[in-house]
DNA sequence: AATATCTTCAACCGCTACCCC
DNA sequence: TGGGGTAGCGGTTGAAGATAT
């Protein structure tokens, strides 16, 4: 049996107080993000490391945008969701200043309903990819979009991109440059869905998938 | 004005991926 | 190479505020 990440009876739960927030901010500003497990003790917080990490990433980080999502952001989320499914961290990674939690909540409370009303929300999971599969599978998606975490994957990402270009395989106009720049504007949101539906034969290059 | 219902979103939980020894 | 520990992810929950009756 695995040990819990923290001694539950000795940690606070629920909403964070201003004092707790300040302690966390002060600590990270002077020591940086590091070992989340030891951070609470070091920062004088009665919270578990997980809770501290979540609070920092989703709420306290200085580079967060906050506020309402713009039309361009919403459009991008819809498109990336069509490609990736519920891989919120990958989607959030393409939206500077937004967190996975924020994107997930926005999808569930706004976009999903909006698409349902328009009759454009798939009734079956990953319906958009055809044949009941997501357009990008669980292994392909990180290779395409989440290369920051594992530098060794960069070559594969570049190969992947080159394969697409040389095979003239359909791919939405995503920013695949290995930079942190804001993605360029994309075509109208329904185009991708329609393109996928019109071209069920669209194929992805072999990445040694599902091995 | 009071109460019920709905909506939103911060936070938690459990699982998996990843790293290091 | 396998196992243990930690970080990160996605689903879910529940409190608080908004809206309807």
Give an overview in words.
This protein has 211 residues and is an all-alpha fold. The protein folds into 2 domains: 12-60, Arc Repressor Mutant, subunit A, CATH 1.10.10.60; 71-198, no CATH class. The protein has 9 helices and no strands. The protein has helices at residues 18-31, 39-43, 49-60, 71-84, 88-93, 100-118, 140-145, 154-167, 189-198. The protein binds a DNA duplex (21 and 21 nucleotides) through residues 2-3, 5, 13-16, 35-37, 49-51, 53-55, 57-59, 86-89, 100-102, 104-106, 108-110, 149-150.
Provide key terms for this protein.
211 residues, mainly alpha, Arc Repressor Mutant, subunit A, 2 domains, 9 helices, 47% helix, disordered N terminus, DNA-binding
How helix-rich are the residues, as a percent range? 40-55%
Our count of helices gives: 9
Q: In total, how many domains does the architecture comprise?
A: 2
Give the end-to-end Cα distance, rounded to a whole number of Å: 29 Å
Biggest sheet details: none
Q: Estimate the strand proportion.
A: under 5%
Low-confidence stretches: 1-5, 123-134, 145-162, 164-193, 200-211
What overall form do the CA principal axes indicate? elongated
Give a summary of the structure in a few sentences.
By secondary structure, the chain is mainly alpha-helical. It has helices at 18-31, 39-43, 49-60, 71-84, 88-93, 100-118, 140-145, 154-167, 189-198.
């Amino acid at each position: 049996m695995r040990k819990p990440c923290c001694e539950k009876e000795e940690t606070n739960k629920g909403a964070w107080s201003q004092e707790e927030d300040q302690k966390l901010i002060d600590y990270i500003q002077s020591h940086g993000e590091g070992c989340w497990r030891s951070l609470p003790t070091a920062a004088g917080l009665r919270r578990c490391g997980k809770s501290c990490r979540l609070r920092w990433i989703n709420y306290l980080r200085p580079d967060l945008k906050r506020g309402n999502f713009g039309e361009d952001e919403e459009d991008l989320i819809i498109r990336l969701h069509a490609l990736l499914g519920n891989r919120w961290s990958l989607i959030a990674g393409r939206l500077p200043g937004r967190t996975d939690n924020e994107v997930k909540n926005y999808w569930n409370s706004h976009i999903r309903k909006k698409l349902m009303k328009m009759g454009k929300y798939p009734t079956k999971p990953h319906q958009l990819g055809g044949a009941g599969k997501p357009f990008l599978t669980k292994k392909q998606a990180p290779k395409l979009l989440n290369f920051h975490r594992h530098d060794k994957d960069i070559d594969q990402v570049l190969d992947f991109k080159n394969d697409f270009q040389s095979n003239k395989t359909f791919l939405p106009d995503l920013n695949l440059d290995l930079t942190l720049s804001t993605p360029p504007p994309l075509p109208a949101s329904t185009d991708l869905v329609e393109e996928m539906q019109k071209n069920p034969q669209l194929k992805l290059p072999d990445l040694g998938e599902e091995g």
